[in-house]
Design a protein that fits this description.
Strand content: 35-45%
Largest sheet: 4 strands, antiparallel
Shape: globular
CATH class: Alpha Beta
Helix content: 10-25%
Order of helices and strands: EHEHEEEE
Strand order of the largest sheet: 1-2-6-3
Low-confidence stretches: none
Mean pLDDT: 91
Structural class: alpha+beta
């Protein structure tokens, strides 16, 4: 990725993400499909004042949707679970 600001698309605001943030000091992002773990780590550290300990990624498949007799699929997307280092405060207020 050439531009770090194109890596992170936004936060993933779900109930599971909220529980992970409170319990395990993890933050979940929607990221670009061609982003890798290294570029995600660099983008998070550049955009927010935190140190990243670990990054896990998951490829999410688009759901099947139907309108009348026509069926189609939503786009596939990628999700990143970012673990912050110990002692780092959560930056969820900035999101």
């Amino acid at each position: 990725m050439k531009n770090m600001y194109n890596v992170l698309k936004g936060p993933c605001l779900t109930e599971k993400a909220s529980l992970l943030q409170e319990a395990d000091n993890k933050v979940v992002f929607k990221v670009s499909p061609d982003a890798n773990k290294i570029s995600i780590k660099l983008a998070v550290e550049k955009m927010f004042p935190v140190k990243v300990k670990n990054v896990h990624v998951a490829n999410m498949h688009g759901k099947q949707k139907r309108v009348g007799k026509f069926t189609g699929f939503r786009n596939d997307w990628k999700k990143a679970y970012v673990t912050l280092s110990e002692g780092q405060i959560s930056f969820a207020d900035e999101l």
